[in-house]
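Appendix B, record 7
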Amino acid sequence: MTIDIRDGSAAQSDIKAGRRVLASESEALSALAGSLGAEFAQAVAVLAALQGRVVVTGMGKSGHVARKIAATFASTGQPALFVHPAEASHGDLGMITPGDAVVALSNSGNTPELGDIVAFARRFSIPLLAITAKSDSTLGQSADIALILPPEPEACPMGLAPTTSTTMMLALGDALAVALLERKNFSAADFKVFHPGGQLGRRLLKVSELMHGGKGLPLVAPAMPMAEVIVVMTTKSLGCAGVVGDDGRLQGIVTDGDLRRHMQSDFLALTARDVMTPSPKTVPPSMLAAEALGIMNAKSITSLFVVEGDRPVGVLHLHDCLRAGVA
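C-alpha cells (predicted):
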C-alpha cells in the first residue's frame, strides 16, 4: 500500500512528534546514566555471586520489558527466566529457588500483583532487586537493592502511557547484563555457545570450523618441480599450494596468480621455491572467520593458510566463508 504524504502539514506534524519522543527519551537515558552509583555496583555484585538464576518479573508493560531483560541475561551467560507475577500466585512461585535472585520491575513500586513474589523472596531470604521510580514505594522499601529511575516525564503528551519509564527500565536491564558479562569475562566464544543460529552465529564462526585440513591440505616441498605442483593444486582444488620445508614450517605459497606471473617456455622445469610467494599472510585457527574474510578482502586474495607455530594445519578459502554466510 502506498500512502501519499504530499500534504506536508500532517507529515511534518508526525515527524515532529516522533522527534519529540526520541529527544525526550534520550534525555531520560542521559539522566539515568548520570544517576548510576553504588546501588548499581551492588546489584551487579549480587548477580555475579549467584549460584542459581535471575528471576525477572513485572506486570503489564513492565512485564514485557522484564521478559526481554531475562532473555538478555540468558543469552549473555547468566541463567535467567521470566515469571509472571499473577501466575506466581497460582503455583509458579515454585519456579523460584533459594539460590536465585529476583529482579522486580514496577514504575510505581506499588503493583499489587507483585505482592506474593515480594513476600516469597522476603520469607526465604532470596535477594530482591527493584527497578522502580519510587524509592518510598512498597517495592522500593522491601528490596535489598533499589535502582531508582530518575523522575523523567513520559513521552506520551498526556503523561500516562508507559514510554520513557519502560525505555529506562529496558536500558537499565541492558546495563546490568553487560556489566555482569564484563565482570565474568564473557567472551565471543562463550557468546557463540548461546547463539549458534542465524547471522549472529555465522559471524562467530572460527577459522577452524571452516578450513580444509588433513588430507585435503595441498602441501609441496620447495624442490618439487612445477609439473608436480600443478597436479597437487588441481587435485586439492583450492587454487593454491603451501610450500613446506623439512622442518614442517610454511615457507611460501603458490597460487594461481603465481602460475600466471611465471608462465614461460621452461615453466614446468621450475621448482615450487622458484615460483612461490615467500612469507605469505597466515591466520591462526582460533581467529573468527569474519576477521579472516576481512584480511582476504583487504589483501585481494582468495585463500589463507592456517598455521599453528608456523606449521600449516589448514587452508581457508574465500568461498568457504561465503558458503557459510560469513560477511
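Remarks on this record: The mean pLDDT is 90. Residues 211 and 316 are 5 Å apart (CA to CA).
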